[in-house]
Structure formats: C-alpha cells, structure tokens
Amino acid sequence: ARERLAAGAKATFFNRKRREIARNNKHTGEFTSEYIAGLTDDDIIEFDEDTKAEYESLPTVDGFNRSEVNTMVAKIQEEEAFDTHALLVLTMDEIQAREESTLASMEERLAQYGDVDSVYQVHTDRETSAKIDKLRREISTFEQATLSLPHMRAAAVESLKDAIEDGTVKALRAAIKSAKLAKLTGIDDDTDGVWALDLLRDAALELKTAERRKRVTEAHKDLIAKRNKCFIRTDPLGQDRYRNNFWHFDNDESGRVWVESDYVLKDCSCDETTSIDLCVDTNLVIGKKTASIGACDEVKDLLYDELELSMNNDQKEVFLQFCNQEYHSSSMVSTLVRQHWGCHVTDQSLRVLVKNLSGRGVREGQLKTALKEILEASGLSAAPSESSQQNANEQQSRPESSIMGSTAQHHDNQDGRSDNSEYQIDGDKDAFQQAKALAESKLDITGSTVDTSLIVNISSAIGMRVRLRIVPDPVTAPKSVNYEMGTVLGWKTRRRQSQSIDSEQDTSEGVAGIDAQKEPVWRLALDKGGDMDLSCTDLIHGLTCMIKWKTQYKGYIEDDAPFLAYRNSMGRFCGRASDAPTSCSPSSFAKLLLKREQEHYMHLKNRSYENNWGGKSGARNAWMASIKEYGYDQKVIRDGLLTLEDAFFELSGGFKDDLDTQSDTGGTSCPNGRDLLNDENTRFDIELESLGTDIQALWNSRGTRAIFREIVESSTTIHILALCLDLLCRNCTVYLNATKPTATRKSSIEQPVGTRRMNAWQLSQQQTYQSYY
Questions:
Q1: Neighbouring residues of 501: CB distance < 8 A, sequence distance ≥ 6
Q2: Tens of pLDDT, residues 545-595
Q3: 522, 491 contact by CB (below 8 A)
C-alpha cells in the first residue's frame, strides 16, 4: 500500500508538471509541441532546479500516515476480492443513472442516422444498414432488461444482506452469483477495471474473510487429527533441589504425580557394613553392576593416542570421571544407569511435598506452582473436614488391622457400595495355609505350578499387597490385559459356587482340611477404587506377582503389560493414543487390514483387465464381512491376510511368464517357502521388498512370494502379521508407481489465462458451442 501511494504521488506530480510546462509554453513559445510531447520523467525532473527540488520533497514509502495507508489497504483488498486492478464502487442510484446515460448515448447514436424508416427507403449501403439493425437490437434488449432488472436486483440485494449476516461460504457464493445475474457488477470501460454495487463489494470482502476462516478451521482440524495420531511428548513438571524429575501423565489419574530419582550407587567390592548416609532411603541404594544397562564405554574411544600420551595417570582418571558424569553424578559407571520410579497417590503426600518445597528456589518454585495446579485441577486441594480429621486421628491410635478395617468401612459408605462388616479382619491363618496348598496343586496361566517359596514366611493375607492380572474382554481382546494392585482388607467363608464345585472337587480332595462345599474368599480394595473378592488361587497368584514385581525378581517379566502395547515390535506405534493399549489385538489389526485394502484396491483395479476380486463374484464383500464378524480370531485374520495377498497378486497381473510356463510344462512350478528359508543361500539372496523402477509384478519372483506366504502361515503373533501387511502395502505402492501411465491428454483448444480474458474467450466461443447442440 505504501509503494502504491508513493507511485501515485509521483504520477500526479509528473502529470501536473506536464500541464504547467504546456501552459507556460503557450505564452513563451520556447519549445515545440513535439518536444513537449516527448518529455520523459527524467527530463521533467531535470527541467529546472525548482522542479527537481519539488520532486525530491515528494513523500517516500515511509512518509504516509496510518489513515492513508489503511485506506489504500482497504482499496487493495477490494480489488483483490474482484480479481481486478481497478474497482469502482457505485450505489444503486449511480448504477441506474449510469444505465440511463448509456441508453441515452445509444439513442443519440441512432438519431445521427436520421429517420430510420426513411433510411431503408433510400438505397443505403449494406454496412450502414447492419449497424442500424445492431444498434436497434441493443436498444430493444437494453429496454427489456430495464423492465425485468428491478425485481431481480431487489431479490439479489436481500440475498446479499442475508448472506452477509449468515457469514458462510456457501451462502455468500450463492448471493454473489445472483447479484452478477442481476447485473450489479460489470466491466468499466474507462479504467478497464470492474464496477460493482457497494453491497456486493461488502459481500465479496466477507467471502474472502469466510474462505480464510474456513482454511484456518480446516487446517486446525487437520492439525488436531495429526496430533491425535501421534504421541505428544510429556515434559516433566520440574525438579527439586536434588534434581529429581516430577512427572504427570495425561492418561494417568488426575491426582497422581510420579517421581524419577537417581539411585545411590555403591561398589560391590566394599563391605556391606559400610556406613551409608542416614538421610538416604535404603530403596534408592543399589550396586553399580545392578544399576548398569548395556555395554560400557571403551576407554580408547575417549582417549585417543595423542591425548593419552599427553596425560599422566592422575589426569587420565580425572578425565574419565568427568566423562562418566554424563551417566551418573558419582562417576562410578560408564554406562546407562537405571532410574528409580515412585508415585504420590494421595492428596496428603502431595500436600506434604508442596509444603516442603521452597517457593523461592529457581527449580522448586516452578515445581511448587505446577503441583498446586494439579491439586486444584483434581479437586484434592480442599482442606479436610473436622470429622475426617478426627477419624484420621482415631485411626492413628488404633492397631494396623483396625485401621484397615475402618478405612474400608468408610470407603464403602462414602462411595455407596456394600458394607464390609461381614468380613473378618483376622483369623485367616488356617485358611491362608489351605489356599497355599490348593494353589500348589493347580496350574497358573503359563501352565506351571505356583512358586510358593516366596510366601513361606507369610502367615496371614490381611494387610498384604496384591497385584492382579485382569482381562477386561476375554472374547474380542484376550491379549489385552490390565494389571491392578490393591490391599487385602478381610476374609470370610462362603458357599462354593456350583460352577466351581465340579472343577475344583478333584483338586480339593487331595488337599487335607479343605471343605468341598465352602471356600474362603478375601476382600481386596483396589488402588483405583472399588472392591472385589479373591479366591484361593487368585490370592496366591497376586501375592507372588506382587513380590516378584516389587523386588524385580530375576526372570519375571510381564509380556502383556499395557505399556508394552504402546510400541510395537519395531519400537513404534502409529495411531491414536486411545487405541494404543489395544493396538496389538486382532481386532485392531482387522481394522487396519480393511483400511489398507480400501486404499490400494481402487488403484489396482484400474490397472487390471480382469477383476475377480471386487466384481460380480462377491469375493471382496464376503472377505470384508468375515473380517468384520470374526476379527477377534487371530486365525481368521491370518487367513484374511493370505486371501488379500492372493487378490492383490491377481489384480497386479501375476507373473508375466505364467502362460509360457503353463503351455510348456502344463503348470507352474511353485517352490516351497520352508525349503527356501532352510537353505542358507536362498535365505540371504532373496529380497522380499520390491526395489527399483522396473517392476512388472507384485513380487520379484515366485520364491519371494512363497517365503512371504510361509512367514504368514507360520506366524503366531500380531506383530509379524503387521510387518507382513506393511511389506505387502509397500510392494503395492512400488508396483503402482512403476506402472503409472506417463502419457497425458492435452486440450486441442488453447484457453487464455485470467478472469477477464477467460470471459471474453467464452463469449467468442459461444457460437461454436451452440453449433454442437
């Protein structure tokens, strides 16, 4: 806008100076008219000193005030809305006066020919008569349009007002189209630009704003969709004075804060009786060999030959300790070090933590503010009532067993659950021994007996911590499990359920002291809320799992833990965060299978002459129905992937030498995939993925396809099936890119570029189009 204002000021200056020079030359006669007409801008600047000084005093780009710039900006936006370089805004009265002036000028031109009737009687040339006829038709058309336009314009004005109030793109485009049909805009012959009604100008500007707003909204939606497909990196809340990191995860409970602390390393060669700082928690003390992860750094990588020769032994030791501080502050190890994780699960622990933090510290001040926000957001910041404080004081004065009993009682009454008064809080020693004996005689989920050696010294289950393995949906997602922890509150005996009498009668008969009609159950209070009853076997399983999980028992690993499902076997999960816990289930893979088939089917169909997959045979619909109905079964998913590979292979045309081989040998020789995998030469030579641009089929060779199908048929996990599907889709993409048609059809008629030229070209081609109809 500023550049346009500066250019306009210069153009006005040169026009004014030309008029002054021409006017002065009339009195002096110093210059000829040809000389004055041939004056350039540079000649005018150098005409005299006054003109040069006046030119230098013209405002520059930065010499205009804000109001002038805003006015020019608005003018430029109006011109861009109509895609023109000059816009003339008129009112309705000015448009009508303009039309009346146009009609009067045409009638005046017609009157110049004299009496029209007498012109035809006199022998006139053909060109003059054609001009008169054309002019009379234009006047007649203009007068007829003048009679019908007022109603159309009134309706167009109302639609423009409604569209401006509505503000949507669809309504504004429809209103502008009706306004153009009502001739509320047109080409300005004087400026070679466009004239338009002021209300139409406002609607065009509102349309530009609505389109810009729609683009921003769609971009925001696209950004949200992409963000939901990715994992958002979680930043720590802050650090305390000991540089312990505090975390709060989005998908976790609102009031829980996790703490990541460094272990205190001790040398295994030192005596165990070596004194340790009393302020350090014993759970944070660990041997440096146990804390190390991975291989150690090589000294040669840090000390190259020249550096090693320039240092003595003390300098080398100091340098290596400095390098080891990257892994741990003690400089005792040169590998990655394990981190200790803890969690604040109650509001009391969070309040105590907030009180102990210093608000004036650089790190702890920020951490204290973040923890206060978490307390307020989770609704835990309210001060405890007097009754709850009194109950807490009473519980502190009672023994441990009574505290658990009263806590469970209060928990149930507050949440509206059943009363736990029927459960006993002691006296389960005999029942617990019977439970251990019964668990030893049964098999766990892995098919082995329960190892009760870890709970030999435990005589009662009351007050013990338990870790349970729960399958929420054993039918559709049998491998999607959750691990929950809780505390045993009490126990009781109940009548054995009819379904479990027959299944456990044989086991209970071999264990002394167990009644076949009654069974002991223990009441468990879950950490996430809620209560549940545990049978003998579930209790023993939960106790052993809790001990192994807490002590990091050697060889104990939870392969089906929910957090492992957040990453596949390749260390990556591409999907929404809400689908991450079930991403490894057959149901999720079935959805992915249907999605990939829809993405590649249409492109493969266009390159195939025979479509036996999605044609009248109905094979594609039957395949989709089976995947949707039995998608929870891994065998069905595996067979569905093999069927999809057959379909894609046929749509890609198969191997080009199939017909020649069949005619020569009477059939195709299919190699055995297992034999190829057992052979070391072929196993390393065959490439499963299609590479390069000279791709003629879905697979490189028959051996490649045989190996692929053998891998799919022998796979037992969703991870391998997902990798096979990804490989199949990549080969399909490579095949589609290699067989993409290169010839493009060009139009025989060259169309002009630009709105005004396009309109003129369409008018010139209108007679050609009408001849076709």
A1: 516, 517
A2: 888 888 888 878 777 766 555 444 455 555 666 666 667 778 888 888 998
A3: yes
CB-based contact 194:88 (threshold 8 Å): yes
Neighbours of 698 (CB within 10 A): 24
Question: Cβ(263)–Cβ(340) under 8 Å?
Answer: yes
Compute the distance between CA of residue 175 and CA of residue 610 in angstroms, rounded to an integer.
49
Report yes or no: 480 and 470 within 8 Å, Cβ to Cβ.
no
**Both tokens of residue 564?**
């492992």
Q: What is the pLDDT of residue 617?
A: 75
Residue 342: how many CA atoms within 13 Å on its side-chain side?
14
Give the C-alpha separation, 644 to 593, whole Å.
Answer: 9
CA distance readout (Å), 317 to 13, 264, 268, 322: 82, 21, 20, 9
**Closest residue by Cα to residue 324 from 305, 300, 296, 286:** 296
Is the distance from CB of 446 to CB of 422 less than 8 angstroms? Answer: no
Other CB atoms closer than 10 Å to residue 752's CB: what's the count? 12
For the chain, helix, strand, coil in percent to 5 are 55, 10, 35
H or E element at residue 546: helix 536-551
In this structure, what are the phi and psi dihedrals at residue 337, rounded to the nearest 5 degrees? -120, 140
- Nearest Cα neighbor of 441 from 535, 504, 515 is 504
Given a contact cutoff of 8 angstroms between Cβ atoms, the answer to whether 428 and 520 are in contact is yes
Nearest alpha-carbon partner for 450 in 329, 542, 316: 542
Q: Cα–Cα distance between 256 and 380 in angstroms, integer?
A: 11
Buried b / exposed e over 532-562, threshold 16 CB at 10 Å, is eebbbbbbbbbbbbbbbbeeeeeeeeeebee
- 308-356: pLDDT as tens digits: 777 888 888 888 888 888 788 777 888 888 888 888 888 888 888 888 8
Quick: pLDDT tens for 95-116: 888 888 888 888 888 877 766 6
Report yes or no: 22 and 39 within 8 Å, Cβ to Cβ: no
SS3 assignment, position 613: coil
Q: Which residue has the higher pLDDT, 763 or 97?
A: 97
* Residue 717 pLDDT greater than 60, yes or no: yes
DSSP string, 694-718: ---SSSSSHHHHHHHHHHHHH--SH
The three-state secondary structure class of 580 is: helix
Hey, what are 258's tokens? 């996790």
pLDDT at 768: 60
Q: Which residues contact 508 (CB under 8 A, 6 or more apart)?
A: 438, 514, 515, 516
Instruction: Reduce the DSSP state of residue 212 to 3 states and report it.
Output: helix
Residue 299's nearest CA partner among 328, 320, 315 is 320
Distance CA 341, CA 260 (A): 5
Nearest to 403 by CA among 487, 526, 527: 487
Please compute Rg for the chain using Cα positions: 44
pLDDT of 412 strictly over 80 = no
Q: Model confidence over 33-56: pLDDT tens digits? A: 788 888 888 888 888 888 888 888
Q: What is the pLDDT of residues 369-391, one digit of tens each?
A: 888 888 877 764 444 444 444 44
Give the C-alpha separation, 585 to 572, whole Å. 15
Are the C-beta atoms of residues 531 and 420 closer than 8 Å to each other? yes
